[in-house]
Amino acid sequence: MINENDEFNESTLELPDDDDNNLQGWTVTLADLMMLLLTFFVLLYSMSNIDKEKYAFLADSLRKTYRVESKIDQGTIINEQDFEVEAKNITSVNDILNTKLDEILKNINIYIYQHKLQNVIRSYIDERGVVINISDKMLFKPGDDKLNPQSQNILNYIMELFQTFPYPILIEGHTDNTPINTLKFPSNWELSTHRSCNVIRYFIAKGIKADRLSAEGFGEYRPIASNQYPSGRSMNRRVEVIFKRSGIMKTIQDIESKN
Hints:
Layout: H1 18-66, H2 80-114, E1 121-126, E2 129-135, H3 151-164, E3 169-174, H4 188-205, E4 213-217, H5 230-236, E5 238-244, H6 245-258
């Protein structure tokens, strides 16, 4: 402390040493840099572990989705090569599946355009497989489940497809929301189910094996258009013949497993 009676002398004030101050700042900077590097490497390590978990999760999800046999056991560390092999196997099967679906659809579309049936038959691929959407007026009279004579042409062609592409088939019956209440059809449930079953009976009578076929009826509860207008109700009254995606996949897997 400087006394006011003392003569001011520069030597009485001790100034900090510049070298010591610079050394302290450099040490702090180095410590910060080391901490950042440590954090960076910890982050890299954690990301590496997450990648392995992602590989395992993705491979397992794909196996369950496509029902592909895997050679990767639970608890095995999945490296990049293992994952690539798994992905290639699944991609190969999936490519074959898509090729088959496209081939079936192409054959159906050729028939539709050759016979100018675009207004009564639609075909497309969705999550169920290849769908042949047939308007009910091609097959039945209103409120009835008996097949029209004119239905035989399209059903016979579809039967040819069954022979070319020997996969499981699902027949779905659908109606609009117009109520029905008869002794035979108390509701649209019965009407849609009877229609799909009668289509199946036609195929069986023509020689298609019954164990390839299944039928479902959904009444008015799976519309594809609004029932507010006649055009929409006409679209909703339909029978759908479906080459099942799951059945095609299983056939491909069986063939691949034998090779």
